[in-house]
Request: fold
Amino acid sequence: SDKGKASRARYLSSDKGKASKARYAASDKGKASQALRSEKSKAYRSALKQGLSEELARKKGELAANAKKAKLSSVYPSLFQPQNEEILTHGFIR
Reply:
C-alpha cells in the first residue's frame, strides 16, 4: 500500500534505518545476499548480450545464483539454514 511504502521510506531515510541497513550490509548474511544478487544479475545481462531470450536469460541467472549459493553454503553453512529446524523435519511449527 502507499501508506506502507511511505512509512518504509521514512524509516530507511532515518538515522536508525540507515544504521540498520549498514549493519545488515556488513554482516556475512548481507554480503552473501549481495553476492547472489550480483551473480544472478551478471549472468542475466550476459545472456541477453549473447542474444538469448529473456526467459532463457532469467533461467541462466537463476542457475548462476544457485551455483553461487552452493559455493557459499560450503564456506558458510549456517547462512542458508532455516531459522527453525522443526519446519524442515516435520513440515510445521509446533
